[in-house]
Amino acid sequence: MIGYRYVSDGSISQYLDEQKPYKWVRGFWKKQNYTAKENMIYDKVKLKEQMEKLECVKKENQTAPEDAYVAYKDSKFEIVPETEGNTLDFNGAYQALSEAVTDKKRTIDLNSCPAVYVKAAVMKDDPDLKNSLEECQNLIRTKIVYIFGEETVTLEGDEIRNWLIFDERGRLQKNEDELRQCVAEYVAKLAATHDTVNTEREFCTTSGRTVQVYSSVYGWKIDQEKEIETIMQEMIAGVQTNREPVYAMRANARGMNDIGNTYIEVDLSAQHLYYYQDGSIILESDIVSGDMQYAERQTPPGIFQLYYKKSPSVLKGKMLENGKYEYERPVTYWMPFNGGIGFHDASWQPYFGGNRFREGGGSHGCINLPADKAAELYNRIDESVPIVCFY
């Protein structure tokens, strides 16, 4: 079947040729031993052909090995060991069989030759697999308690585990992009519930009215990109912490009414300003706001904060084609809070309050104040104080 046969190396013929007829009598007194090699050969191609016919070599009789993997079982992550299978490494098996034939062995047990079987690529003691297990354990160990004033929101392992993907056998499918997407959706919901930027608030005015005031530049706003990155890092490390979210904008108080009890109220309909500190009025004044006869000069409602303050300053209108400004007006106190709109003294106003803003005496949008009130406001105001403007 494989052309297994003896091939003489010529040693026996040589021994026969060396014998002398007249020396036969010596054999009675002295024995002579001769050694001849068993020079067996076989056809390697035929051996391979015969091997290919073996049942254990046929693919339908082979089971592939399976890698070790991380799975979630009984409320914990663990490593499921590899399975060996019985898929032959044909070249390795052929080498073992060839050596057995060469060594004149009548049988061979392939199970005693581990190199002939295909091994799993990932073993249970693989360092990378152990690192993956530790990462997974850290994920469900993570606990982040978000602090929103008196309210707390907790993100912990049970919810995080629901963000992970497993196949039908329970093997963890590592996909950082999908995990990050789940984190992003969680942070977006957190922001939708707790952000106050771009929302309307009910504001109780000094006059007793309740008005709705919108703001896109004041309030609480979670920095979603930074918060996502922070969560990803904390999950990898298995952090347990109590903290605030990462904010892009902060307000003075918690809750949907985040203005607090220190603020400046600008009642544009009543043309009056109130400065509240810890719930008490510490300054009030009549004002003149933007001219209502021109849409572009009307003072916008909203909630704002001071940019900076400067004394003295020169207020300038838009630049004309001739390179000059529409107007240039020196003021002693300048406190901008909404683009080019701000508080300032206005010595040119004959009086404050009343209906000047409706009758052509209004400003270009700023809040005009008497000089003494502007000075007092300048000395008291800082960047943290909300400025609430409404009609």
Gist of the model:
Helix content is 24%, strand content 25%. The protein is an alpha+beta fold and 391 residues long.
How many extended strands?
Answer: 23
CATH topology of the largest domain: L,D-transpeptidase catalytic domain-like
The second-level CATH architecture of the largest domain is: Beta Barrel
* Percentage of residues in helical conformation: 10-25%
Q: Which stretches are low in confidence, meaning pLDDT under 50 for 5 or more residues running?
A: none
Structural class determined from secondary elements:
alpha+beta
Note the total helix count: 8
- Overall pLDDT confidence: 90
Ends apart, CA distance between termini: 106 Å
Largest sheet: 5 strands, mixed
Number of domains: 3
Radius of gyration: 45 Å
CATH homologous superfamily name of the largest domain? Answer: L,D-transpeptidase catalytic domain-like
- What's the CATH class label of the largest domain? Mainly Beta
In order across it, which strands form the biggest sheet?
16-15-14-23-17
Query: What characteristic shape results from the CA principal axes?
Result: rod-shaped
Strand residues, percent: 25-35%
